[in-house]
Design brief:
With 524 residues, chain A is mainly alpha-helical. Chain A is 73% helix and 3% strand. Chain A has a two-stranded antiparallel sheet. The relative contact order of chain A is 0.09. In chain B, strand 1 and strand 2 (71-73) form a beta hairpin. Classes of the chains: A mainly alpha (524), B mainly alpha (493).
């Protein structure tokens, strides 16, 4: 029940807004904020009530028939990873809505409805344990995001909106074909029509079918992540989306792609996953370096952060497909980190954009002098993004590098290069915007952060330090999920890896993983 | 051989008889209704159609063939008849507004809608070539008149002429195919044809020729590529409610006839007609969607989209499994709701002196009429096949049926087309929500219109969230047909 409550809270908020007259602007804002933060509050018990030591793979399970004639169920439940993602979703949803208080003044009723529906879709995707239900939520995200970019966006909003819509739609319809192919295979083997995810975890799919279905899933999820070469929609969408849209897009929507790999592709199609590792690693590495280089060349602040997302998400996928416990744990942690730090960076751009209405980097400079508090938070989030020790980014990146290193030193080396480039473009951005002389007179009168704005950053700062200094509660919650995935995708190292997961982040654990786990490059 | 139906047969014909008697009364009674009380006729027509629908209820779940084996009362027929009658009722609902704006007489209009419905019902039930043909002609002739109903309007005249000339030509092709079939099988009854076709005497080429002619003739009625050329011009010129009825009712009934003919008369030749329909489906989807992308007139856009949708529905027939046929039926039902809803919005935009069918006239609709824009949004995403709408569930099940029977590439073509189609549906949404409004003119909407639109929108959403009833009903309806048992064309396993 509790998951359904979490799912429905923002939706109920949206329905209340739908019934409100549009001239009650203050009331609409209050209702939207209340709905979003109520959603966060009802989801908070997941942190305490989730039991990492439980033998069940999924907790808080709700199951009831949905479309009995085709075997689809309303089946929801969470493991450690989805619990964290749901918490991240409800938190970022609240932050995004509070951050929009003064930024959006046009058609605010539709705006908040779109945000709340979007949030419902994201939560649904993270809790669904039925393939059809998941797909439904996966696609429900598209329309509100299309509206957010298309109505409240800037510059080339119409182009970016349709590009985002069509691009991600291509991926998801192909994903649907993959789901259907698996569904009929399940029936052919077991005589049961079911979209139940857990059934597919034990299903032995023949290699040829695995290959095709993996390809379909890969297209669906990698466009969402987005991985090179499917990333081109992302900079446009991010740049033209309103601040809240960018925050949700970066922090949550992209995670739906990597979550898809974690929840569906890898455990359902383990053989194809192993064979795909070299190719996916190659694309991830290109994404890491290419994204970083592109970020370095940007003149537009938001576009720079968008390209940094491409680079960071490449890192996340690399860790995931290292198929080692350390790498996967790092990847999952890094997804939360990316949500926190990139979400914060987009919020920060939004703050100055609201004041100056430009995102050009050279329109700024010397901002630290007029907005000291802003500069401090920006510095902190920059450090979090580039992985300074004691902040969250460091934990994720180290684990990913460590998990990748045992598989291939070259991969780890290239990924390390990406991190260095990441530091370069972020620090350069900081230097160009915050330090130096104030070159534009408009910038002299800029107001520092207000109380509401500070409030939106506080939870993110807390999380950045918490994960950076004491990641154990997070790692503990992820451990059983990681363990299960490793058992499925690389059974030969699962036994030896069990110890490593629990010892994370213990650097000595990594060499314990046998070198023979290196997946053979190329296709068998 | 007894040709005259018995009294027992008459009981099974209750829905058709109700409609016939009702429309005759209306035709005569309408003469005595004064010109300013025309809406009473629309109401009367609505009531008669409602009674017809009620008369269908006892036939649910039955499976009999009456009148010497030429008329079937089975689940399949009932399914199509319900769609046809509901489509006719929506047409009348939305016509009320349109008739007032155009200031034309209602009587003949209402009666023609009803005769077309009668034709559709006969097509759905016919299990004999002649019965089917009579149904088809009843429907077609009614439409020829309705398309040209706006006498002073040149576009309407042009549409009527085009539809009439091409329509009669295609009917000629169809009847020629029927003649060949009769010559080969020695009977016009489908059951006899099936037996003859199972062990064909004489040339197999002749059989193929007959099937090809039948497919071509019906391909015109469902507006499948390459028999689609008429559709955009006719939809554009026809009265908007009629274009809507034409694209839904006529298509549903023609699909019923096509499905019954292929599955029950020619199961033995399934590999032939399946490959023909495969090509038809792929072409219709692709050509329809690509052509729709550049349309700036919403009626033309919906015409091309309806061509594409004929392609989607055909996928189920290509699969030819019970799942495929039920998916086709589901999709016909879903398509009826979303297409008629979208057309109803175009009708609602028609005001005195405002055509209301160009895309730019939709600009800023979200400001002028937020709920109408919201309803249109629902219809557009449903037509594009995006959840949580019935359009998604229908498409999902069609593609599923194709994959299940081994037509993976057809499913791939189908999903690629869904993406293409979203481009132009999103364009409509863009005009409504993301462009400044052009006109400040008030946009009054009659309550009957608002109700029709809301019901269609609600049906699309409910069908998308809880499609179980629809799936179950379509499944049992499809089982009424002798469905071909098929060997998968290609398998991944």
């Amino acid at each position: 029940m509790s998951l359904t409550l979490i799912l429905l809270t923002p939706l109920v908020g949206a329905l209340v807004l739908l019934a409100m007259p549009r001239r009650l602007e203050g009331g609409i804002k209050i209702v939207a904020n209340v709905a979003a933060w109520a959603g966060f509050l009802v989801s908070l018990p997941l942190w305490w009530q989730f039991d990492p030591s439980s033998a069940d793979q999924f907790q808080f399970v709700t199951r009831s028939p949905w479309i009995p004639s085709i075997g689809a169920e309303y089946h929801t439940g969470i493991d450690g990873f989805s619990a964290l993602l749901v918490l991240l979703t409800t938190l970022m949803g609240g932050i995004a809505i509070t951050a929009s208080w003064s930024a959006v003044s046009l058609r605010i009723k539709e705006y908040y409805i779109a945000l709340l529906v979007l949030q419902t879709g994201v939560i649904g995707a993270f809790i669904a344990l039925d393939l059809l239900l998941f797909f439904l939520f996966f696609e429900v995200m598209l329309v509100p995001m299309y509206f957010l970019i298309g109505i409240w966006g800037s510059d080339r909003r119409l182009y970016s909106a349709i590009k985002f819509f069509l691009y991600t739609l291509v991926g998801s319809v192909v994903l649907l074909l993959g789901i259907l192919a698996l569904y009929f295979h399940l029936h052919a083997v077991t005589g049961v029509y079911s979209f139940d995810v857990t059934r597919y975890y034990t299903l032995d799919v023949p290699p040829r079918l695995q290959f095709w279905v993996f390809l379909a899933f890969f297209l669906g999820f990698s466009i969402k992540v987005p991985m090179f070469p499917f990333h081109t929609w992302l900079p446009d969408a991010h740049t033209d989306a309103p601040t809240a849209g960018s925050v949700i897009l970066a922090a949550l929507l992209l995670k739906a792609g990597t979550y898809g790999f974690f929840r569906f592709s890898m455990p359902m199609l383990p053989d194809a996953t192993r064979e795909a590792v070299p190719w996916i690693a190659l694309l991830s590495l290109i994404g890491i370096v290419y994204g970083a280089l592109c970020a370095m060349a940007q003149q537009d602040w938001k576009r720079l952060v968008a390209y940094s997302s491409v680079s960071h998400m490449g890192m996340v996928v690399l860790g995931l497909f290292a198929l080692t416990p350390t790498g996967i744990t790092g990847s999952l942690i890094q997804q939360i980190n990316h949500g926190v730090s990139t979400g914060a960076l987009f919020l920060l751009v939004g703050v100055v954009y609201e004041r100056r209405h430009t995102r050009q980097i050279d329109a700024y400079g010397g901002i630290a002098a007029v907005m000291p508090l802003y500069a401090a938070i920006f510095l902190l989030m920059t450090m979090s993004s580039i992985g300074l020790p004691a902040l969250n980014g460091f934990v994720g990146e180290v684990l990913i590098l460590q998990g990748t290193f045992v598989v291939s030193k070259v991969w780890a080396g290239v990924a390390g290069l990406g991190i260095i480039l990441g530091a370069a473009y972020m620090l350069w951005l900081y230097q160009r915007t915050m330090f130096g002389e104030i070159t534009h007179d408009e910038n002299r009168g800029l107001k520092d952060l207000g109380l509401r704005e500070v409030f939106t950053f506080v939870p993110l700062i807390i999380l950045a330090f918490w994960i950076g200094l004491y990641p154990k509660p997070f790692v503990d919650r992820l451990a059983p999920a990681v363990q299960r995935l490793v058992e499925r995708v690389s059974p030969e190292i699962a036994a030896g890896a069990a110890a490593a997961v629990h010892a994370v982040p213990d650097a000595h654990a990594a060499p314990a993983v046998p070198a023979t786990t290196h997946p053979a490059p190329g296709v068998h | 051989m007894q040709v005259v139906p018995t009294m027992a047969d008459m009981a099974w014909l209750a829905p058709e008889l109700t409609l016939t008697v009702g429309l005759l009364i209306l035709l005569i009674g309408g003469l005595f209704v004064p010109r300013d009380r025309q809406s009473a006729i629309v109401w009367a027509g609505f009531v008669v159609l409602g009674a017809t629908l009620a008369a269908l209820v006892p036939q649910a779940g039955r499976d009999v063939t009456i009148a010497n084996g030429v008329f079937a009362v089975d689940g399949f027929a009932v399914f199509i008849k319900v769609i046809a009658i509901v489509a006719a009722m929506i047409t009348l609902e939305t016509s009320r507004h349109w008739l007032t704006i155009e200031g034309v007489r209602a009587t003949e209009y209402v009666v023609l809608v009803m005769t077309a419905t009668l034709g559709m019902m006969v097509m759905a039930s016919g299990v004999d070539l002649v019965t089917m043909f009579i149904g088809l002609e009843t429907m077609a002739v009614s439409f020829y008149v309705m398309v040209g109903y706006l006498k002073p309007n040149r576009r309407s005249n042009e549409a009527a002429l085009k539809y009439f000339v091409l329509g009669t030509f295609s009917t000629g092709v169809l009847i020629y195919g029927m003649a060949w079939t009769y010559g080969l099988a020695g009977s016009t009854r489908i059951a006899d044809i099936a037996i003859a076709a199972a062990s064909p005497e004489g040339s197999i080429v002749a059989w193929r020729f007959a099937i090809m002619l039948l497919v071509a003739g019906l391909g015109f009625k469902i507006a499948a590529v390459p028999f689609h050329m008429w559709a955009p011009d006719v939809y554009e010129g026809a009265p908007t409610p009629i274009a809507s009825f034409l694209s839904v009712g006529s298509k549903a009934a023609s699909f019923a006839m096509l499905i019954r003919l292929m599955l029950e008369a020619f199961p033995s030749a399934s590999s032939d007609w399946r490959s023909a329909l495969y090509v038809l489906a792929a072409l219709s989807m692709t050509v329809g969607n690509i052509a729709a992308m550049t349309q700036n007139n919403l009626k033309r856009l919906l015409a091309y989209s309806s061509i594409a949708h004929a392609g989607y529905v055909t996928i189920g027939l290509v699969a030819a499994t019970p799942r495929g046929i039920s998916a086709s039926l589901v999709y016909i039902a879903v398509y009826a709701c979303m297409q008629m809803g979208a057309f109803a919005i175009v009708t609602a935009l028609r005001q005195k002196g405002v055509p209301g069918e160009e895309l730019h006239e939709f600009s800023g609709l979200a400001h002028r009429r937020p709920w109408m824009a919201f309803a249109m949004l629902i219809f557009m995403i449903a037509l594009g096949g995006i959840p949580p709408t019935a359009g998604f569930m229908g498409k999902m099940w069609l593609f599923g049926a194709a994959i299940d029977s081994g037509y993976v590439w057809l499913a791939v073509i189908g999903v690629a087309n869904s993406v293409l189609s979203v481009y132009y549906y999103a364009r409509v949404v863009m005009w409504m929500w993301m462009t400044p409004q052009e006109s400040e003119a008030p946009l009054p909407i009659a309550p009957s219109m608002a109700i029709a639109i809301s019901l269609a929108a609600a049906a699309v959403i409910i069908g998308g969230l809880f499609p179980d009833q629809l799936f179950t009903w379509a499944e049992s309806s499809a089982r009424a047909l002798g469905v071909v048992s098929v060997a998968p064309a290609l398998t991944l396993r």
